[in-house]
Amino acid sequence: MRTVVITIAHGRHDHLERQREALARSSAAVHHHVVVAMDDPTLVARLQRTPRTRVVALPAERAGLPLAAARNAGAEAALELGAELLIFLDVDCLPGEGLVAAYRDAARDPATAGSLLCGPVAYLPPPDAGGYDLGRLNEVVPHDGRPAPGPGERLENGDPRLFWSLSFAVTPAVWADTGGFHEHFVGYGAEDTDFGFTAAAAGIPLTWVGGATAYHQWHPTQVPPLGHLDDILRNGAIFARRWGWWPMEGWIDAFADRGLIHWDTTEETYVRSPTSEHHHAHGPSAVRSAGR
User: Fold this and answer.
1) Which of 11, 63, 93, 279 has its CA at a distance of 20 to 30 angstroms from the CA of residue 113?
2) pLDDT (tens digit, 9 = 90+) per residue, 70-116?
3) Domains of the chain (ranges plus CATH)?
């Protein structure tokens, strides 16, 4: 089964390099790695002559990085390369040695071949001076916010609300049935939840694949993500128009509790509060050790 891994990236070059090192340790062969460089000419120059690697350059949009469009562009490139299985990995994710094989087995199984295939994700602590020991990644326990079946196990008919784009796989047929990511989503947030619901609406079930574990490299993040407030409002409104409810409820509640946003009864949507610019620039924020 000709397998192509797709990674979208802007910066995070060290994370991508570690990901490629981990891919080289895979127990099952990866035929190509498609890297979609979003507004990142340095990355294009670094990888464009690398064997078994296809680099796709994509400019940024005025509103931010085109995450949804980048995944679609990556899938298009993978299909051009003859992919029979498309594995999407976030640039922060290191694939476990069995990830490719577990996804491939699930895609070959008639019971799950027509599914949106998702693997568990474990969050790594900050690396030491020598980086991560790729041979010991499996000592880290997967995140408890998502199902994490054991190796060889699969959980079918998963909740589309729990789909995340950090690590998932599809056959070309399933990808075609989803129609891809909705490209009106630009910047952070909601595009992956929208994709999960789009797949469900098309009759595509979500299956959690044991053994397809990815390991998310540490990076500092804000809680709540103040730097993405405008993205979350814009993308949340798009999602709400499409599905009738607001996603990212935890972030929305956190912003509202801080007085950064409020519900506009006239427009029937969340908007920035008048004082939010000051808080956005100067308000307190917490940094957590793991996150998207």
Assistant:
1) 93
2) 999 999 999 999 999 999 999 999 999 999 999 999 999 999 999 99
3) 3-216 (3.90.550.10), 221-288 (no CATH)
3-state secondary structure the chain: CCEEEEEEECCCHHHHHHHHHHHHCCCCCCCEEEEEEECCHHHHHHHCCCCCEEEEEECCECCECCHHHHHHHHHHHHHHCCCCEEEEECCCEEECCCHHHHHHHHHHCCCCCCCEEECCEEECCCCECCECCHHHHHHCCECCCCCCCCCCCEECCCCHHHCCCCEEEECHHHHHHHCCCCCCCCCCCCHHHHHHHHHHHCCCCEEEECCCCEEECCCCEEECCHHHHHHHHHHHHHHHHHHCCCCCHHHHHHHHHCCCEEEECCCCEEEECCCHHHHHHHCCCEEECCCC
Does residue 227 contact residue 285 with C-beta atoms inside 8 Å? no
Global pTM value: 0.92
Beta carbons of 226 and 188 less than 8 angstroms apart: no
**Phi, psi dihedrals of residue 188, rounded to the nearest 5°:** -75, 130
